[in-house]
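Incident log, support desk, overnight shift.

02:14 A customer reports that sequence design results differ from what the structure should imply. Their input is reproduced verbatim below. On-call engineer (initials T.W.) acknowledged and began investigating.
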């Protein structure tokens, strides 16, 4: 079978307290929000996106920051987020800028998949609105009504989102997934807990697999040590999803497991 290439891109970054990763502990319960903590505890976390060259089409997973965060941050992200979050989108790092550097236009992308609709994953989606299909799970879109505090619908208001439903599957702790090409090569597995409709992309080819686990955990160490993400809508689901990701990442044929915000994972290309 021809190869699948996964290009790991960084589309901006955010600065957060190191305890946000859950590995280094503090006795201050609000440390992860950076409250009453000095700047020396802060680190930059990347916002990853994944450009996948698949024999059935070009797929983009997540979109990082929109260029608007450079000049109109409050208008784009809202007062609360732009006041309390420290973030940056370096020159040429926006998703459309990175596609253009590779000779691609947004219209060349067959499928954009949003792992979930939190600001740091969906901010840049408007820049690729001309992609042929832009997907989010119906569960995730519904959850923006249940937990409106975590979402900013204006970010996708002008984007023709399509929703998919998860089906009964052999994958994931919940046994729910959407098989994008209906051949097991790119399966969007429901790994809820951080959000209800959260997707982990499982890519399988030539007896190898790669796991793009979004915010099921914030780092590889977080997967190994089973540290749950700070934001959760369901603790039990978050725990089960993380256990499943750990289990699949320990399989011999799993060549990479990539949480979205791990500062140790630099832009690179994986071939399977
Ligand atoms: Zn995130």
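02:41 Re-run completed on a clean worker. Output:
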């Amino acid at each position: 079978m021809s190869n699948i290439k996964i290009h790991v891109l960084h589309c901006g970054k955010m600065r957060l307290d190191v305890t946000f990763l859950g590995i280094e502990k503090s006795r201050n319960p609000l440390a992860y929000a950076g409250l009453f903590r000095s700047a020396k505890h802060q680190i930059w976390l990347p916002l990853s996106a994944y450009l996948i060259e698949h024999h059935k089409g070009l797929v983009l997973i997540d979109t990082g920051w929109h260029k608007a965060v450079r000049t109109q941050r409050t208008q784009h992200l809202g007062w609360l987020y732009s006041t309390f979050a420290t973030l940056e989108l370096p020159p040429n790092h926006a998703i459309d800028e990175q596609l253009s550097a590779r000779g691609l236009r947004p219209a060349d992308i067959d499928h954009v998949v949003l792992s979930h609709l939190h600001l740091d994953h969906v901010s840049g989606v408007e820049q690729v609105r001309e992609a042929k299909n832009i997907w989010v799970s119906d569960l995730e879109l519904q959850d923006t009504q249940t937990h409106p505090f975590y979402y900013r619908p204006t970010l996708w208001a002008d984007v023709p989102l399509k929703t998919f439903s998860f089906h009964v599957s052999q994958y994931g702790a919940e046994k729910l997934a959407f098989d994008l090409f209906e051949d097991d090569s790119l399966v969007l597995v429901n790994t809820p807990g951080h959000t209800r409709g959260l997707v982990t992309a499982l890519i399988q080819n030539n007896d190898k697999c790669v796991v793009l686990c979004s915010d099921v955990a914030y780092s590889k160490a977080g997967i190994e040590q089973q540290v749950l993400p700070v934001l959760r809508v369901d603790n039990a689901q978050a725990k089960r999803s993380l256990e499943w990701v750990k289990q699949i990442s320990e399989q011999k044929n799993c060549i990479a497991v990539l949480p979205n915000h791990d500062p140790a994972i630099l832009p690179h290309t994986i071939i399977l």
